[in-house]
Write a structure and sequence with these properties.
Shape of chain A: elongated
Radius of gyration of chain B: 19 Å
Distance between the termini of chain B: 14 Å
Oligomer: heterodimer
Number of strands of chain B: 10
Number of helices of chain B: 8
Helix content of chain A: 10-25%
Largest interface: A-B, 81 and 97 residues
Largest sheet of chain A: 4 strands, antiparallel
Structural class of chain B: alpha+beta
Helix content of chain B: 25-40%
Order of helices and strands of chain B: EEHHHHEEEEEHEHHEEH
Largest sheet of chain B: 8 strands, antiparallel
Structural class of chain A: alpha+beta
Strand content of chain B: 15-25%
Number of strands of chain A: 7
């Protein structure tokens, strides 16, 4: 894994500075827990007139997560009901890139691990240096810039199937959060 | 800014209309937004594989044949096959289990249709964001748009300013993939996320999907033949941009 590194170029242009990135496994697990306890019904059509776009951007990025958790009816995140402890395997969910399947480990009524059993694999092993794509070091997006961002482009496809498989595993466990 | 958010097609759509002299008519705004919701719903009814009664679900269950479906659906399938040719097979409407899945092109079609609805109602500056894929209208560099890190956090790794000809952006990838999974399959060098900026959303969306599926060869094909801007994240943490994307990333910080 590339270690984060930073260097500053001309201050005036805020051009490309900075970091590599790290996938935080802890962050991943934390998000999974969020997802499973998020109801599917908390986002209804809304029309607002508001010049503050920062909040609404946050709204999008979280509400897209709710859509594949239709089977979840539990919204209560404060009451921990004892489901079964153990390891529960989710459904295999087909995606454009192949099958996706996860399992969850529940210990003492809490999710302690989420493991991916099957992930859509990209069997292309092309690692040739590609002249049409230049390695870049991306700027750490500064707070001040983030406030101006009105939209985030992000991937949703596989995450939906991931959550669908995860949800089925939690259902199998009788996990109610 | 008018912001309208609704859920459809298994994702969330958000529409932002900037207050400009042309964009302030509330009745017209309501009519356009209603129209857009209907458009998304119509596409979803025809193509969703999460709706058991949709024609595509019935096709997946072998209850009907492709030839028995509507001209519109067959036309969409034909266009998906065209894209398979254009991307040298990297984009395909056929899932590994054989099911015809047109969702990769239909969400983009719906965004494009929503774009037409707003334009037909006379709007001039707006964005349509469906689950992270979006089309904008406005002058160049109007819409400050983040490109999410491929860690599922939704936090931006980079920022591009869209508008003018660069009006569409789409990101495809394995955003939930954790490190332990990579070690299992060791796809070092593989592309785990691709973002494509183009002049129309179908082009963006198809190439983004194709590049994640086809890897560096497809990225080179897109750069050489499609005139699109591409940013990719590799499994080992490397980030690459093609020359057009380098230009977009170098845009000076706007005071917009």
């Amino acid at each position: 894994m590339r270690t984060p590194s930073a260097f500053i170029t001309g201050a005036a242009t805020a051009s490309l500075i900075a970091i590599g990135w790290n996938i935080g496994q802890a962050g991943l697990a934390a998000e999974n827990v969020d997802t499973t306890t998020t109801a599917s019904s908390d986002q209804t059509a809304t029309t607002t007139t508001d010049s503050s776009t920062t909040d609404t951007t946050t709204t999008d990025t979280s509400t897209t997560e709710t859509t594949t958790t239709d089977t979840s009816t539990n919204t209560d995140t404060t009451t921990t009901t004892a489901g079964s402890d153990g390891t529960f395997v989710g459904d295999t969910v087909q995606t454009r890139f192949g099958p996706m399947q996860v399992q969850v480990v529940i210990t003492g009524g809490a999710i302690t691990d989420v493991q991916t059993l099957q992930f859509p694999s990209n069997d292309r092993k092309s690692v040739e240096i590609n002249e049409q794509a230049i390695p870049v070091l991306l700027a750490e997006v500064l707070e001040i810039q983030s406030a101006d961002i009105t939209n985030i482009s992000r991937a949703t496809y596989t995450s939906q199937s991931y959550k669908q498989s995860l949800q089925s595993a939690l259902d199998a466990a009788g996990y109610t959060g | 800014m008018t912001v309208h958010i609704f859920d459809t097609m298994g994702t969330t759509v958000s529409i932002r209309i900037t207050e400009t002299p042309d964009n302030t008519d509330r009745v017209r705004t309501t009519a356009a937004l209603d129209g857009i919701e209907k458009v998304f719903d119509l596409y979803d009814r025809d193509y969703s594989l999460y709706r058991g009664e949709s024609p595509l679900s019935r096709l997946a269950r072998h209850e009907v044949t492709l030839a028995e479906l509507s001209d519109d659906i067959r036309d969409t399938y034909a266009r998906a096959i065209d894209w398979r040719q254009i991307t040298h097979g990297a984009f395909t409407p056929h899932r590994p289990d054989g099911v015809i899945d047109l969702s990769g092109i239909v969400k983009a079609d719906a965004i494009a249709a929503a774009h037409s609805v707003l334009r037909a109602h006379g709007f001039t500056e707006y964005s349509i964001n469906a689950g992270g894929d979006m089309t904008v209208a406005g002058e160049p560099e109007t819409w400050v748009t983040g490109i999410a890190k491929p860690d599922g956090s939704g936090n931006p790794a980079a920022v591009v300013r869209l508008g003018g000809e660069w009006s569409a952006i789409a990101t495809s990838g394995f955003s939930e993939r954790g490190q332990h999974i990579w070690r299992a399959s060791d796809p070092t060098g593989d592309i785990i996320q691709a973002t494509v900026v183009a002049a129309d959303i179908v082009t963006s969306d198809v190439w983004a999907t194709a590049i994640v599926s086809g890897g560096s060869d497809t990225l080179e094909l897109a750069t050489r033949t499609a005139g699109v801007a591409v940013l990719v994240f590799h499994a080992d943490g490397e980030v690459r941009a093609n020359p057009a994307m380098m230009e977009l990333l170098r845009q000076p910080a706007a005071t917009h």
